[in-house]
Design goal:
The protein is α/β, with parallel strands linked by helices and 288 residues long. It has 2 domains: 84 residues, Chemotaxis receptor methyltransferase CheR, N-terminal domain (Chemotaxis Receptor Methyltransferase Cher, domain 1); 188 residues, Rossmann fold (3-Layer(aba) Sandwich). Helices cover 40% and strands 17% of the residues. The chain contains 10 helices and 10 strands. The chain has a 7-stranded mixed sheet with strand order 6-2-1-7-8-10-9. Helix 1 packs across helix 4, helix 2 packs across helix 4 and helix 5 crosses helix 6. The protein is globular. The N and C termini lie far apart (43 Å). The relative contact order is 0.11.
Length: 288
């Protein structure tokens, strides 16, 4: 039925035949698997990203591709499809005001607790290739140099196993390090023989990388003192966003801090958070 609404295909004269029926099948699958909304205005983007997959696996049309990803043999390709449809734009110390708030407000009382034997748990949800959790780890180490020897842990999760593997490796080209303060670079990053730079074992010890679909079951129990979830919710509809905010709240410590993306907002009248700074929220009391 979707096909009848359009007189022309979504991408005229493309290398591969691509119909509106194909587009809507792909959009529905992406939404069902990962909660990601794909409006018709992104049809050309869908074609561009998935044409690479068709070439890679030797298919001739999007109809064939849809048949594959909808079949029982298409489990691996469905994962590749979701990875192709997500945007992994990140950098070290992105949205620096969050790290200022981390240093000035969130971490000092928590680190006092760590010094007295308490645990500290931070979650980087949608961590992409690792720049965010490594930025958090460097910040922690700047305030508590022996953090890796204490009960301190950063969970770094993402849907895409390929970007997680890059984060797990902890190796980056020099150009990616420009936003890391020089003092942190000299203390916690070593140059490798191949010209890339490697985070030291002390930094990597603080982080656990795990694959996680935010729409599925979450195996971790919490509680988390701090959660970073930045520029992730923009892909979800409002109902999905609200459900995930509530799930975060149930896993957070009382008064825990949630950092979100610059274009994201939380409805504090309906959800158990209060605004604590620029795109920074604090959990109200104990979530139930």
């Amino acid at each position: 039925m979707a096909e009848a609404r359009h007189a022309t295909p979504p991408v005229p004269d493309g290398e591969f035949a691509f119909s509106w029926e194909d587009f809507h099948k792909i959009a529905a699958l992406v939404h069902g698997e990962a909660g990601i909304m794909t409006p018709e205005s992104k049809a050309a983007l869908v074609y561009s990203r998935l044409a690479k997959r068709l070439r890679a696996i030797g298919l001739r049309s999007f109809r064939d591709y849809c048949a594959l990803v909808e079949s029982s043999n298409g489990v691996e390709e469905r994962q590749a499809l979701i990875a192709a449809m997500t945007t992994n734009v990140t950098r070290f110390f992105r949205e620096s005001h969050h790290f200022d708030h981390l240093v000035q407000t969130s971490l000092p009382p928590l680190l006092d607790g760590v010094r007295k034997g308490k645990r500290l748990r931070i979650w980087s949800a949608g961590c992409s290739s690792g720049e965010e959790p490594y930025s958090i780890a460097l910040t922690l180490l700047s305030m508590m140099p022996d953090a890796a020897e204490r009960d301190v842990l950063i969970l770094a999760s993402d849907l895409d196993p390929d970007v997680l593997a890059r984060g797990q490796a902890g190796s980056y080209p020099a150009a990616r390090l420009a936003d890391i303060p020089v003092a942190m670079r000299g203390r916690h990053i070593d140059k490798r023989a191949d010209g890339n730079f490697q985070f030291t074992a002390g930094v990597q010890q603080l982080i656990r990388f795990r694959q996680l679909n935010l729409l599925r079951d979450w195996p971790m129990k919490g509680p988390f003192d701090i959660i970073f979830c930045r520029n992730v919710m923009i892909y979800f509809d409002q109902t999905t966003q609200d459900n995930i905010w509530k799930r975060y709240a149930r896993l957070m410590s009382p008064g825990g801090t949630l950092y979100i993306g610059h274009s994201e907002r939380i409805a504090t009248d309906a959800l158990p958070f209060e605004l604590a700074g620029q795109t920074t929220y604090r959990l109200k009391g104990v979530a139930r």
